[in-house]
């Protein structure tokens, strides 16, 4: 019954192949890893010649760029943070599971939207519209949150019949038409208010009263456009962090009489804090390094101005515009590489921080036995 | 068969030893440390050919570690250090000239949870064969049929040899893994709690299979299930804290152990 | 109202905060759908043959053209409307702002036609006659003759001239072989318009740009993008997989491996422009310059490889997407249970056999996902390409019939950069806008499709595995 044993035929060859392949993979793997880690080394190396030159000069040229970068990133974060974190809280804790399984991938698809498209819309569509409707835009920034609250008040007043028809767990979806209506209302009403109080032209009033110039492409536009671009990454990571908070913790708080919002605020947020922090950090890293949106929506004026209605030039866009023209080895070349090094170090550090915090959180949960 | 059975001083249990013509595997003074932590201490043991030997002991006693050491599976992990000897048919398996892949072919291993590969039933059994030989299809088919028959699985799968192995039930998967190991015709088969993840009926089938297989090869069974060890094995070794406490014929270990510690464990007073 | 405020004051705002959060989701969805709708409507609407209007102004002058949009007049009440009237050769501009109050009559005559011509772009007006060597045709005959002639390629058409009349009454002569399309949109049925729309979309996808990127298509940009992405994937896949296998299967798992892993993960967050700088400094100036001085010294100082080109762009993007591929592959490898590896090894497989026969086949979906995500990222990246190799208008395609057929050193056109350049550096941005929208839409569609493919693949393979487990 037992078949006769066949002698193994090509043993030495198998061992040889294995040894060669392992060696090749090791060599190749190390080479690839070194190649990508070489980026930092290259940037350091190419900035060294700057040390021989006058340092203050390099600093003077860099400071408006650093300022512009921070201003753009700050504007974007101001716009993105409330929306992204609010959306994360709602979809992790209030949204119906079925809606969530649709909405989350949709919002994550936003992340794939190429910067050049967002920048084009911001620079050529949004910027002229905002210039014509500055008052409406500013009113919208205040009016939208108020109208959301208004929706809440109306909903709580409504009968339970409406509560069943329009459940809060689906509000993320059915609030869309409500917001569209509110936007339309604001855009229709604001010019009338502007007429009444500001003499019909907010921009002229700003200039006369406060001496503020208005550039078509400015920090406000960059903030909205780049905010739009970083919302999905912050949202996605923060939502993961919140959804990872063990349900038992929330339920424990609610069992003690806390409202769902209090449970979220007092229990879930602190527990997910590190994850949310790393989400914000990663969003910040993206905002600092984004090139095309700033390039197309900012006007590219290297100004040291804090006004939200004036443009700026960021390090990334300066590199994109000036580096192809700079002669290799010249001052501008090294100076722009210094800008790239600053970007590299900043984003690398921010990401490392985020990763470290995230890992620590994961380990903590591990210890608590929740995974 | 028992070459020597001398009474030693308490608390030492008598040493069971087999002469070289009956001994498939002998372990001498074997020590193993995992990341600096000692897992096996000074183990000496010989395993008889064509018999089922069971390793029992509380979890963490080192029985699985010992099994993996016999297959040199610890080679994949760098933080493991060992000393002493394990001899398979008189050859030191840790010797420099030992071919590890050949050793693993000769010492088959079946794991706690069934791990069929994500391919068809046929390909699963053919996997080891294809590594070793280039056989004509006829001959390969014969070996596969033989292996599946030996593992008592042939009748259940002969009509669906080319379906995915992951569609089988847990017990069938475990027998498939045994068939896959048998196909390369090992001398020793190591079974690491092979039935712990299975339902009672599948467990009985596996136990029956183990009893039938000892006519073909030497089996070593690690189990935490005392009844299983008693039902299946010819010899039983009780390990505790990485040391061998008592080793002898199963009947004797279970009915009349030499040491109080063994009796405590077997009667459930120590886990 | 009372029910809401009857609650303890502490709870009053607690009930409203969640609504702000819900509105955040709604606002994000609103912005996303607004952006997509805008791109869809403007991007696809441009190809629809628009109605041509003829308006008479209070001053008595007549304008024929396509109404584009309306805006309120600055500083005063009233609305003005922008018309595209073409005929740049007649009066120098092709746009006309009209105060709506000045319009005395507005008609859509069926005999208004729109021609696309090679040197001067669009003509909007009337066809008076077609003059050939033998005859002069008028009215319907002329129109039919023109349409017949347009079915032939330009160089095979019979010699002839079109006698055109603008709305103002000026006449001009247009050689027959300079016309690429003739439409009388007001006389077209819905079906004919749909057909023309399809033809226009096809032309946009299959032709090269004309008239300083304000008309024509984006075929060279599509081609350049696809070619670069293919080259990039060919480079990034083996190297990414190799690095992931080394990191996960072969390297000792210790503190250094963990650090390298975090480093690689973080490199995915480094701005793309930094990779562009690296590509420019190392690939273009470093390696390219050296190659030039070794092999192409006869053509120096004009560089061959020492300037941006297809190869360097692909390499730079490959470097940029390496972390994506490595991370995705590593995740796939880490998901494979050790039992599978041990099962293979316990049967006497060498490490190579275990990797190639068990581990790699199981990790293939993860690798595929990684590569598709890399492609999606690379297709949308523009910033690094500005440093290492795109061109506004590449004179030669990177692939042609000339040896060695694929010219890795050539500059190439890219959809994203084409969009940026046309929108921000074009001569007549207003005229190019519809094409910019169409290009943006195309880019978004390509990237969305790639991402959806990745999501679908991941989902599909997970479910398949789940059901079999």
UniProtKB/TrEMBL annotation, chain A:
Pfam families: BPD_transp_1. The keyword Repressor does not apply. One of its GO terms (biological process) is transmembrane transport. Gene3D superfamilies: MetI-like. InterPro entries: MetI-like, MetI-like_sf. Its main location: membrane. It is found in: Cell membrane. The chain crosses the membrane at residues 20-45, 65-91, 112-130, 136-156, 168-189, 219-242, 263-284, 333-354. It is a multi-pass membrane protein. Residues 66-354 form the ABC transmembrane type-1 domain. GO terms for cellular component: plasma membrane. Keywords: Membrane, Transmembrane, Transmembrane helix, Transport. It comes from the Bacteria. PANTHER family: PHOSPHATE TRANSPORT SYSTEM PERMEASE (PTHR42727:SF1), PHOSPHATE TRANSPORT SYSTEM PERMEASE PROTEIN (PTHR42727). Belongs to the binding-protein-dependent transport system permease family. This is Phosphate transport system permease protein PstC (TC 3.A.1.7.1).
From TrEMBL, chain B:
Residues 25-266 form the ABC transporter domain. GO terms for cellular component: membrane. SUPFAM superfamilies: P-loop containing nucleoside triphosphate hydrolases. Keywords: ATP-binding, Cell inner membrane, Cell membrane, Membrane, Nucleotide-binding, Phosphate transport, Translocase, Transport. GO terms for molecular function: ATP binding; ATP hydrolysis activity; phosphate transmembrane transporter activity. One of its GO terms (biological process) is phosphate ion transmembrane transport. The keyword Magnesium does not apply. InterPro entries: AAA+_ATPase, ABC_transporter-like_ATP-bd, ABC_transporter-like_CS, P-loop_NTPase, PstB-like. PROSITE patterns: ABC_TRANSPORTER_1, ABC_TRANSPORTER_2. PANTHER family: ABC TRANSPORTER I FAMILY MEMBER 17, IRON EXPORT ATP-BINDING PROTEIN FETA-RELATED. This is Phosphate transport ATP-binding protein PstB (TC 3.A.1.7.1). It comes from Halomonas citrativorans.
From TrEMBL, chain C:
The chain crosses the membrane at residues 218-247, 267-288, 308-328, 358-379, 435-457. One of its GO terms (cellular component) is plasma membrane. The keyword Cell membrane applies. It is a multi-pass membrane protein. One of its GO terms (molecular function) is phosphate transmembrane transporter activity. Keywords: Cell membrane, Membrane, Transmembrane, Transmembrane helix, Transport. One of its GO terms (biological process) is phosphate ion transmembrane transport. Its main location: membrane. It is found in: Cell inner membrane; Cell membrane. The keyword Cell membrane applies. It holds the Pfam family BPD_transp_1. Residues 222-454 form the ABC transmembrane type-1 domain. SUPFAM superfamilies: MetI-like (SSF161098). Belongs to the binding-protein-dependent transport system permease family. CysTW subfamily. This is Phosphate transport system permease protein PstA. It comes from Halomonas citrativorans. The lineage of its organism: Bacteria, Pseudomonadati, Pseudomonadota, Gammaproteobacteria, Oceanospirillales.
């Amino acid at each position: 019954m037992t078949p006769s044993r066949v002698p193994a035929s090509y043993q030495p060859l198998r061992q040889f192949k294995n040894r060669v392949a392992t060696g090749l993979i090791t060599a190749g793997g190390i080479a690839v890893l070194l190649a990508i880690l070489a980026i930092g080394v290259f940037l350091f190396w190419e900035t060294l010649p700057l040390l021989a030159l006058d340092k203050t000069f390099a600093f003077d040229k860099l400071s408006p760029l650093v300022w512009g970068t921070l201003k753009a990133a700050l504007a974007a974060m101001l716009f993105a943070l409330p929306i992204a974190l609010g959306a994360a809280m709602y979809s992790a804790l209030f949204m119906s599971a079925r809606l969530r399984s649709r909405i989350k991938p949709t919002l994550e698809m936003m992340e794939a939207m190429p910067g050049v498209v967002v920048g084009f819309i911001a620079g050529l569509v949004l910027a002229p519209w905002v210039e014509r409707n500055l008052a409406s835009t500013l009113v919208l920034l205040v009016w939208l949150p108020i109208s959301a609250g208004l929706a809440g008040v109306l909903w709580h007043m409504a009968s339970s019949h409406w509560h069943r028809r329009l459940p809060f767990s689906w509000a993320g979806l059915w609030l869309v038409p409500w917001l569209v209506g509110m936007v339309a209302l604001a855009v229709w009403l604001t010019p009338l208010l502007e007429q009444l109080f500001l003499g019909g032209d907010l921009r002229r009033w700003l200039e006369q009263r406060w001496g503020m110039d208005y550039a078509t492409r400015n920090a406000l536009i960059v903030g909205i456009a780049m905010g739009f671009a970083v919302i999905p990454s912050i949202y996605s990571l923060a939502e993961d962090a919140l959804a990872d908070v063990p349900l038992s913790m929330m339920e424990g708080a609610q069992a003690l009489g806390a409202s769902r919002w209090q449970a979220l605020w007092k229990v879930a947020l602190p527990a997910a804090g590190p994850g949310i922090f790393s989400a914000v950090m990663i969003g910040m890293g993206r905002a600092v390094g984004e090139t095309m949106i700033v390039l197309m929506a900012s006007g590219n004026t290297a100004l040291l101005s804090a006004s939200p209605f004036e443009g700026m030039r960021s390090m990334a866009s300066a590199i994109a515009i000036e580096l192809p023209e700079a002669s290799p080895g010249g001052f501008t070349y090294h100076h722009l590489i210094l800008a790239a090094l600053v970007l590299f170090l900043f984003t690398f550090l921010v990401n490392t921080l985020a990763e470290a915090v995230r890992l620590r959180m994961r380990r903590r949960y591990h210890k608590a036995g929740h995974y | 068969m028992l070459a020597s059975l001398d009474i030693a001083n308490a608390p030492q249990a008598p040493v069971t030893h087999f002469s070289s013509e009956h001994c498939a595997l002998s372990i001498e003074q074997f020590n193993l440390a995992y990341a600096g932590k000692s897992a096996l201490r000074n183990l000496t043991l010989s395993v008889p050919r064509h018999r089922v030997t069971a390793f029992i002991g509380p979890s963490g006693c080192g029985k699985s570690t010992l099994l993996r050491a016999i297959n040199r599976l610890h080679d994949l992990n760098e933080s493991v250090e060992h000393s002493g000897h394990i001899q398979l048919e008189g050859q030191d398996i840790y010797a420099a000239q030992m071919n590890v892949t050949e050793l693993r072919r000769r010492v088959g291993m079946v794991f706690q949870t069934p791990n069929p590969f994500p391919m068809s039933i046929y390909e699963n059994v053919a996997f080891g064969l294809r590594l070793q030989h280039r056989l004509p299809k006829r001959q390969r088919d014969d070996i596969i049929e033989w292996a599946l028959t030996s593992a008592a699985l042939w009748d259940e799968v002969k009509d669906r040899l080319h379906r995915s192995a992951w569609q089988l039930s847990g017990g069938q998967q475990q027998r498939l893994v045994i068939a896959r190991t048998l196909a390369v015709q090992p001398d020793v088969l190591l079974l690491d709690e092979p039935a712990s993840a299975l339902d009672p009926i599948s467990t009985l089938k596996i136990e029956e299979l183990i009893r039938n297989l000892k006519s073909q090869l030497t089996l070593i069974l690690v189990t935490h299930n005392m009844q299983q060890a008693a039902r299946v094995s010819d010899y039983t070794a009780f390990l505790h804290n990485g040391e061998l406490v008592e080793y002898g014929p199963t009947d004797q270990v279970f009915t009349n152990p030499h040491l109080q510690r063994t009796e405590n464990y077997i009667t459930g007073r120590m886990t | 109202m009372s029910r809401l405020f009857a609650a303890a004051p502490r709870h009053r705002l607690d009930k409203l905060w969640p609504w702000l959060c819900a509105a955040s989701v709604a606002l994000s969805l609103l912005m996303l759908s607004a952006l997509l709708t805008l791109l869809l409507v403007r991007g696809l609407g441009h190809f629809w043959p628009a109605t041509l209007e003829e308006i008479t102004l209070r001053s008595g002058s007549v304008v024929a053209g396509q109404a584009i949009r309306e805006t309120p007049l600055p500083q005063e009440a009233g609305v003005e409307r922008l018309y595209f009237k073409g005929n740049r050769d007649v009066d120098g501009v092709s746009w006309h702002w009209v105060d709506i109050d000045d319009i005395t009559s507005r008609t859509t005559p069926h005999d208004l036609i729109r021609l696309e011509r090679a040197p001067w772009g669009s003509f909007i007006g009337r066809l008076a006659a077609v003059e050939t060597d033998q005859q002069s045709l008028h009215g319907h005959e002329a129109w039919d003759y023109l349409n017949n002639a347009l079915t032939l390629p330009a160089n095979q058409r019979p010699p002839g001239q079109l006698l055109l009349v603008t709305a103002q009454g000026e006449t001009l002569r247009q050689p027959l072989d300079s016309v690429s399309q003739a439409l009388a949109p007001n006389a077209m049925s819905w079906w004919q318009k749909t057909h023309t729309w399809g033809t226009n979309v096809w032309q946009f996808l299959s032709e090269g740009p004309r008239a300083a990127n304000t008309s024509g298509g984006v075929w060279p940009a599509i081609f350049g993008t696809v070619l670069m992405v293919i080259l990039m994937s060919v480079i990034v896949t083996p190297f990414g997989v190799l690095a992931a296998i080394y990191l996960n299967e072969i390297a000792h798992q210790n503190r250094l491996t963990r650090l390298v892993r975090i480093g690689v993960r973080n490199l995915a967050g480094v701005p793309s422009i930094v990779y562009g700088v690296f590509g420019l400094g190392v690939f273009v100036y470093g390696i390219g310059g050296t190659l030039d001085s070794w092999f192409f010294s006869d053509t120096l100082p004009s560089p061959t490889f020492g300037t941006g080109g297809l190869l360097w762009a692909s390499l730079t993007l490959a470097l940029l997407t390496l972390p994506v591929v490595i991370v995705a592959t590593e995740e796939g490898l880490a998901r494979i249970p050790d039992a599978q590896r041990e099962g293979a090894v316990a049967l006497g497989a060498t490490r190579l056999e275990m990797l190639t026969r068990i581990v790699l086949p199981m990790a293939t979906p993860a690798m595929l996902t990684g590569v598709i995500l890399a492609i999606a990222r690379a297709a949308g990246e523009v910033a690094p390409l500005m440093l290492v190799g795109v061109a506004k208008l590449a004179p030669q395609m990177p692939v042609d019939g000339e040896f060695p057929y694929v010219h890795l050193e050539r500059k190439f056109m890219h959809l994203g950069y084409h969009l940026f350049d046309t929108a921000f550096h074009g001569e007549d941005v207003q005229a190019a806008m519809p094409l910019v929208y169409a290009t943006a839409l195309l880019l978004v569609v390509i990237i969305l499709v790639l991402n959806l493919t990745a999501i679908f693949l991941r989902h599909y393979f997970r479910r398949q595995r789940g059901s079999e487990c």
